Request: fold
Amino acid sequence: MVQSKHTSVAGCARTPAFAAQRTGMTLVEVLAVVTTVACLIALLLPAVQSAREATRRTSCGNNMRNIGCALHGYLLAKRSFPVGCLEWKSGSGGSKRCLAWNVFILPWLEEQATADRLKLQKPFDDPTNAEVAATVLPVFLCPSADRKRGTVSGMGATDYGGVVGERIASPNNPEKGVLVTDRGYSPKEITDGLSKTILIAECAAEAWPDGQWINGRNLFDQAYGINATMPFWEDEMRSRHPTAAQCLAGDGSVHLIFETIEKLVLAAAFTRGKGESPGSPWSRP
Reply:
């Protein structure tokens, strides 16, 4: 006969001594963990921000390359670069069209539908062009620019301006750049060389009143250094990229020019045929 072995109830109710001990973290340990995490975040945050800016700068450069391809598409079709502004006017109203260089390269930016909606025989600010002028075209916007919307006074914005010359070395009269008023230049007329001449540059440090892609006044001549801080508004090569700004040369190449560049070297790159260029501004820091 097999006898059953029973475990006493009292035996089952016994609790090991270590089970009653507390296993949570002390206040000192919590503070140590929080401090460590905060230090890691402080170390990593600048690196993350730097990586984000590098991505934005690359995207900005890609926009400029697309614009460069479009300018050369226009060049192949018309045998010259487009005018910077067709029929300049200083204010609003009137019969002068004041159409920007951006308008004429739209078909080469895969924006043929936008180009077809424009009334090119009308001024840029005519009511018949209001709807299409309000179109936001990302190719004309720098991701680093500090803007809350893609329009300026109801019109699609641009952070890239056409270069009409410079005022660092001498007055810009007549205009010394390539994208000037009512005149398109062929490559053979740009005697300083396409690779040494700036056609387009960033003007994106602040809200730009004329920074609209349809507005023929989205041009500028350089009078100060890169990213210069001024107490008044001046259309200049300025950006939100730290210590530098980007530009598009006549050969379609995109370059980052640093704030430390010599002003006379910069000025030379803003002219098409002065013969004074001692070298490209992007060849030196």
Q: What stands out?
A: The chain has one domain: 58-283.
